[in-house]
Amino acid sequence: RARAEVQAALDGCSGGDGAGFSLFGTRVGKALRGVADKVRFIRGEAGAVLPDLPPVYDLAFIDASHDYDSVKADAANCSRCLKPGGVLAFHDYASGRDEGVTRLVDELIG
């Protein structure tokens, strides 16, 4: 059976006191019942964590800062972690409130 693994790089959720990180881990753990042992949470700035990950992932889901420059940097860093043919997915595309996400995705697929 194939082994799936997920890495989550999290910026300083909820003001850096750790509460947001802990809450995120709890919620994801509940959502991933039965596969939680395949998830490793890495706390840190995405720009510092992602460049050190190997290019072995099939999917990268980006939901972080929504300004254009941040989304562009996250997309570049996540792209390096993907296997050939891997997929970048973005939260809040065409939401009407996060123009940075929409602008970058439109550029990537345009």
What features would you describe in this structure?
This protein is α/β, with parallel strands linked by helices. It is built from four helices and four strands; from the N terminus they run E-H-E-H-E-H-E-H. Strand 3, helix 3 and strand 4 form a beta-alpha-beta unit. Helix 3 crosses helix 4. The radius of gyration is 14 Å and the shape is globular. It starts with 5 loop residues before the first strand and ends with a helix.
Molecular shape: globular
Overall pLDDT metric: 78
Main-sheet strand order equals 1-2
Number of distinct helices = 4
Give the % helix. Answer: 25-40%
- Structural class by secondary-structure content: alpha/beta
- The end-to-end span amounts to 38 Å
Question: What is the element layout, followed by pairings?
Answer:
Layout: E1 6-10, H1 19-31, E2 39-43, H2 46-49, E3 57-62, H3 68-79, E4 82-90, H4 99-109
Parallel strand pairs: 1-2, 3-4
Helix pairs in contact: 3-4
Entry keywords:
4 strands, two-stranded parallel sheet, alpha/beta, disordered N terminus, 4 helices, 110 residues
Give me a quick take on this structure.
Residues 1-5 have low confidence and may be disordered. The protein has helices at residues 19-31, 46-49, 68-79, 99-109, and strands at residues 6-10, 39-43, 57-62, 82-90. Helix content is 36%, strand content 23%.
